[in-house]
């Protein structure tokens, strides 16, 4: 089956296949012509030190690159659309890598899932043009933070929800969350700032708090996020919901534009990268 290439530009024949790479005497693939592949990845981040590669520590990138090497006999370096921290989950992480393999997209999905641990799964694969950059060409990222607002814990939800036993005023939380929509300087909601960071201004397209029974979900969509921005934001919103912070105090924190003052952060277990949005038609059906 032939799949069309996806991206801003279409160079050459979208259905063109890649020439079979030669093999070294040791049997490893000597890549002489590469194509780019995009993967939609879901993972439980509980047992990983984030998405980005770290020496001698289990990471999502490390596991994905090992699985790609097993399947293709190539050493590939992946590029992720959004960096997730230790313990943070993803339902729709987007990663790309270059390969000389001739495998079809469905074969990449099945083959990589065979080699990956059970807490990481490839949901879909697409060929993309070489100019496609999963991080730089994303127009927005969608994160959800899940809270179990219950007097008693739930063992089945423990790894994916933050337990808050006192009653939360979610209407008050939602009203304050609405003030985040638009373009603002979110420096106060960053735990720290990298020296190479050009700006702390971000455009938020959606910020809302919803309740269904004992489950409270904070949904935030923005063009990009500062380090720990969502967890620091929900930490402050929880204090609003508990009556420990007024809306004016929340707004004063945002106006101060001083990194770290919005903390403490909410735990990583409740945070999930739901989706990365692009202007390109390679979305799969998500259930």
Give a quick set of tags describing it.
two-stranded antiparallel sheet, single chain, 10-stranded mixed sheet, 287 residues, Alpha-Beta Plaits, 20% helix, alpha+beta
Describe the protein:
- With 287 residues, this protein is of the alpha+beta class.
- It folds into two domains: 22-136, Alpha-Beta Plaits (2-Layer Sandwich); 140-275, Alpha-Beta Plaits, CATH 3.30.70.
- 20% of the residues lie in helices and 28% in strands.
- Strand 1 and strand 2 (29-30) form a beta hairpin.
- Helix 1 crosses helix 2 (105-115) and helix 3 (170-178) crosses helix 4 (229-241).
- The longest helix has 13 residues, at 60-72.
- Mean pLDDT is 86; it is low at 1-32.
